[in-house]
Specification:
elongated; alpha+beta; two-stranded parallel sheet; 2 helices
């Protein structure tokens, strides 16, 4: 990727590969958009009510299944 010229990069995939894409884009000053972790990414921090958050994540996943 570093040998080619791109106006921008859009990547959907794993965090591991996303880091490689971001590093290469940074070296070449190419703007990039990364969607990591699949089609329903969620961030839950230590202040969350874990039981409630888990129920909401499962509910949203099933709601978007169709």
């Amino acid at each position: 990727m570093s040998a080619a010229r791109f106006n921008s990069i859009c990547f959907t995939g794993s965090t591991e590969k996303g880091r490689l894409v971001a590093a290469s884009a940074g070296r070449n000053l190419v703007p990039c958009v990364l969607e990591l972790g699949g089609k329903s990414p969620v961030v839950i921090d230590e202040t969350a009510n874990l039981e409630y958050a888990a129920k909401q994540v499962v509910r949203a996943k099933f709601l978007n299944a169709g």
